[in-house]
Amino acid sequence: MAPLLKVEQLHIGFGPLEPLAGVDIAVDRGRILGLVGESGSGKSMTAMSVMGLLPLMGGRITSGRVMFDGTDLTTISERDYRNLRGGRIALITQNPMTSLDPVMRVGRQIDQVAELHLKLDRKAAKEKTIGLMARMRIPSPEMTYDLFPHQLSGGLRQRIVIAMALAGDPDLLIADEPTTALDVTVQAQIIALLSELVREKGLGLILITHDMGVVAQTCDEVAVMYCGKVVEYGQVNAIFDAPRHPYTRALIGCIPQPGMAPRSLAGIPGMVPPASAMPAGCRFNPRCPLAIEVCHSASPPSVIEAGRSVACFLAEGESA
Ligand SMILES: Nc1ncnc2c1ncn2[C@@H]1O[C@H](COP(=O)(O)OP(=O)(O)OP(=O)(O)O)[C@@H](O)[C@H]1O
Ligand SMILES: [Mg+2]
How far is the CA of 239 from the centre of ligand 2 (A)? Predict the structure, then answer.
């Protein structure tokens, strides 16, 4: 069976800039795909592309496909997209306040999703909302239903946003740094809840994060992005056991280990280049400790082998 979502060779354009230049990812039902990479690597752009929200931002898909449950979403109308968004595909963003209406009671905001996408009447929607709030372990759901967003803590607001995302019975959930704004213990609780929901409801989840530790603990597959490309993709265990792209190795070197002094974090020297000044050849070559001549002139193709892929000339040599 085809995966729930398969993005193939996605390229997007914002005028002359190409923030995504070859993104291939797949996520299945009941699985969690981690999308990692430094700031500016194109994680949010990938999410926006799948959500069909690029036009709102002034961008467009220039080539590639976004196959969702058998349909290429790059070909559907905005009207069809409006039915999918918040329904079968839902997005959770970093800042819950951007998703919540400050002057509407939080319970009603959740109700409205089920009313719109599942055509539930107000009473049935409220019942569903209370159930979802309880599922999100929100204390006294009946009481919290009537509160306004500003009356809740950041962690509770994010739970409301997740309940809202679930209210349309989605098949695919995209969580873009859902816990970055929260403190560490609350982060861990939210990530644990999300992964329970995936197993229980058989959702596909794309979890966008900076945190390789979260990926190692939570995800089934991982796509490592750098400068608008997926440089390495595969099962989390395989990649953490034997990362093949120098960038992945550097990122894994950045995971703080227990007992390690914060200053001994490896860090990756250099900076992500701006979209307007991409280097020729492999986009990682200016920062790569292993770069050879070809890396400066040619873009490494993605080599796919046994369910994992890597785009690096050196990794190619390794497997030969
Ligand atoms: N609204 C926009 N218009 C044009 N280009 C943008 C816009 N937002 C981001 N970009 C560019 O697109 C590229 C990818 O950005 P994106 O926001 O997807 O990165 P990200 O991986 O989500 O980073 P972060 O970890 O900071 O959230 C960057 O080069 C960025 O400068
Ligand atoms: Mg982002």
Answer: 23
